[in-house]
Design a protein that fits this description.
single chain, alpha/beta, Rossmann fold, three-stranded mixed beta sheet, 12 helices, globular, oxidoreductase, oxidoreductase activity, NAD(P)-bd_dom_sf
């Protein structure tokens, strides 16, 4: 296969396969080999952040999820894809799952599908548009008025590879949805998390994070916007946030855990945008050997959310080729995500943009 090919469709230049399928963890030009060498030299855990990673049980699956009775879990974007599969699994183990979704009809339909399954606790749908800071505040207020505990916050909702547009608050939409809204939501719900023994925050990143860097002078993509670069940047922001949240929680002696996960590569409804649909067609021949189903993709998220062996500051994903599929394991933390100065600067920028300040450095 000639990996470096590029196409034009309707006058639009598309990236070569190495760029198009970055989210699947495949890169041309010999990068696969270099990454393999690097992974032999560098830890696949977050030892550099002061954590030791327990070995993940081989073949960990939903049957290994501990009883979740009495626990309250928020899943953003829980009406479809990875979020739905995570909600379904947790409801099947007795958790009270809150489906925090932009579309209430879709959330209610997902609730009904899960409630109809034998032995599954009915989830609660609540309206949340994570791309809108006012909606994030309204959701947090409504949730706090209804619940006196929060055991797990799964920051899952996301969009992928959309043409440049701005959120209601004037933020680049992928950054607003995938990172900034979740940053604000976590801060607003942190007091409730801190009041709940053993609480966890689970930011959902992507293997696309390894292809990104944070350009603070072009954070909103005003110059040279690329649908995929913007997506990759937002997923690196998720990982930087998860690791920095862990560090800041540890520094104040909090018992709240921050455990980041990525699902590998799965054909979820994130591929609904025009740019992503083109990529989906290009990736179709590789779907069998490299991609896995949404329920398999949800396993690292569920491990991070529930396993007694998951470590705060840890990063989990599949263990297969380029972490695209496979069993749950400690994931590779890309070099860009280990830059403490970048993480701290992103935190400050996120506070300034959203107006939600917490855990000062």
């Amino acid at each position: 296969m000639a990996i470096g090919w590029r196409w034009r469709i309707k006058g639009r230049r598309l990236p070569g396969i190495s760029g198009v399928i970055a989210m699947a963890g495949i890169a041309g030009g010999g990068r696969v080999g270099r990454l393999s060498d690097r992974r032999r030299r560098e830890p696949t855990s977050v030892i550099n952040l002061g954590c030791s990673m327990a070995t993940v049980k081989q073949g960990w699956n939903t049957r290994d999820i501990p009883d979740q009775s009495g626990r309250v879990v928020i899943i953003t974007g829980g009406n479809s894809g990875l979020g739905y599969e995570a909600a379904r699994a947790l409801a099947g183990r007795g958790a009270q799952v809150v489906l925090a979704c932009r579309s209430m009809p879709k959330a209610e339909a997902a609730m009904q599908r899960i409630a109809d399954e034998p032995g599954h606790r009915s989830p609660i749908p609540m309206q949340l548009d994570v791309a809108d800071v006012d909606s994030v505040h309204a959701f947090a207020k409504a949730f706090r008025s209804r619940y006196d505990r929060l055991d797990v916050l799964i920051n899952n909702a996301g969009i992928m590879a959309i043409p440049r547009q701005l959120s209601r608050d004037g933020f680049e939409m992928q950054l607003a949805t995938n990172h900034l809204g979740h940053f604000a939501l976590t801060g607003l719900l942190l007091p409730l998390l801190q009041a709940t023994s053993g609480a966890r925050v689970v930011p959902v990143s992507s293997i696309a994070a390894r292809y990104a860097r944070i350009a603070f002078d072009n954070l909103m993509g005003e110059r040279g916007y690329s649908t995929w670069h913007a997506y990759n940047r937002s997923k690196l922001a998720n990982l930087l946030f998860g690791l920095e949240l862990h560090r800041r929680l540890q520094s104040v002696g909090s018992g709240v855990m921050s455990v980041t996960a990525h699902p590998g590569a799965s054909m979820t409804n994130l591929f609904a945008s025009p740019g992503a649909r083109i990529t989906k067609r290009l990736l179709a021949p590789l779907a069998g050997p490299l991609f896995h189903s949404a329920d398999r993709g949800a396993l690292p998220i569920l491990y991070a959310a529930t396993s007694p062996d998951a470590q705060s500051g840890g990063y989990y994903g599949p263990d297969g080729f380029q972490e695209t599929s496979g069993d749950v394991a400690a994931a590779h933390v890309p070099r860009a995500a280990r830059n403490r100065q970048v993480a701290a600067r992103l935190w400050r920028a996120s506070e300034s943009l959203t107006g939600v300040y917490y855990l000062p450095d």
